[in-house]
Specification:
NADH Oxidase, 15% strand
């Protein structure tokens, strides 16, 4: 599957088959993530792989009771090391660049998963402090997204997209 096909075929999936994901496959997703661009090549990302059912249940609760989170075979919690980005770029690195960098890594996870026949969902709605406590995330490292991963148990239609004529501006807004 080429990248444009993966971009257009990727969906946010919230229902997964009860099939395990191998550690080798999870490492392929993280390998794709680490090739994302980052400001100054600082690579501020950290990835917590969660397979334990009790920990996934607690993450689902922290994610405003989004039960599909605990039903995924794997949840990848993507974190941004704010301190790492701060050292390179000060406050802008801490407040913006590390978030942008991890967002690029998260997108790579989604596209790589799609290319491998897996399904994902970008979960940003969660109680950050709860996730921090559940996973023992240290100060200076911020949980940015939960990414449930599994084989899809649903195949939603593509969502509508705004036409290019509404979103492209030439030379100025």
């Amino acid at each position: 599957m080429d990248v444009l096909e993966a971009i257009k075929n990727r969906r946010s999936i919230r229902a997964f088959k009860n099939e395990d994901i191998s550690s080798e496959t999870v490492e392929k997703l993280i390998d794709a993530a680490r090739w994302a661009p980052s400001a100054g090549n600082i690579q501020p990302w950290e990835f917590i792989i969660v397979k334990n059912s009790e920990v996934k249940r607690r993450l689902a609760e922290a994610a405003l009771n989004q039960k599909f989170v605990e039903k995924a075979p794997v949840v990848i919690v993507v974190c941004a090391d704010e301190n790492r980005s701060f050292k390179g770029y000060g406050l802008r690195g801490k407040s913006l660049y590390c978030i942008q960098d991890t967002a690029a890594a998260i997108q790579n996870i989604h596209l790589a998963a799609c290319s491998l026949g897996l399904a994902t969902c970008w979960v940003g709605a969660f109680k950050e402090e709860d996730v921090r406590k559940i996973l023992d995330v240290p100060d200076g490292v911020r949980p940015v997204a939960l990414v449930p991963v599994g084989y899809p148990a649903e195949k939603p239609s593509p969502p509508p997209r705004r036409p290019l004529s509404q979103i492209i501006h030439y030379e100025k807004f």
